Amino acid sequence: MKILNTILAGVCLLSLTACGTLQNWNSDYLSGDRTEYLSNDQGTVGDCQGFRLSTSDKPSAADRFWQDNDLPKGTTDYMCKDGKAYLLNKVTDCQSKVITNQQGGIMKFRRDNGFPDGYSYVAFTCTNGSVKPIMWE
What span, in angstroms and rounded, lies between the C-alpha atoms of 23 and 64? Predict the structure, then answer.
């Protein structure tokens, strides 16, 4: 009898756990909160206006972003300059020099121009030959 009660208690607990999981799944499904976002090893990746790039629609925001900026599909490491995304080995500074060809490359460029660590992407504009970082919340 003790074994039967233990088995019944286990079945009841498992079914309650399953119901909780199904309830959460159903809530997410019904609310439409199933969106996945493009990310790299530093976090979520955004477009050049600061919006996260969804990968869940067809065509997705990420697909349109890659196409609009002539980037290879799947690119997550890029830099935005004046509203356009560039591969890291093609983006130029405000004097039209390729950043990766300069001593210290991207990291030195970020450090010298006040970009904080931890941002998964970098965006800037050029104003009178000077870099003006753009950072989004």
Answer: 34
51-100: pLDDT as tens digits:
888 888 888 899 999 999 999 999 988 999 999 999 999 999 999 999 99
CA pair distance 46, 49, nearest whole angstrom:
8
Q: Residue 27 and residue 56: Cα distance in Å, rounded?
A: 18
**CA 104 – CA 97 distance, rounded (Å):** 13
Q: Which long-range contacts (CB under 8 A, 24 or more apart) does 124-132 make?
A: 124/79, 124/80, 124/81, 125/81, 125/82, 125/83, 126/81, 126/82, 126/93, 126/94, 129/94, 129/95, 130/94, 131/93, 131/94
Query: In degrees, to the nearest 5, what angle opens at C-alpha 62 toward C-alphas 112 and 33?
Result: 110
Contact 52, 44 (CB under 8 A): yes
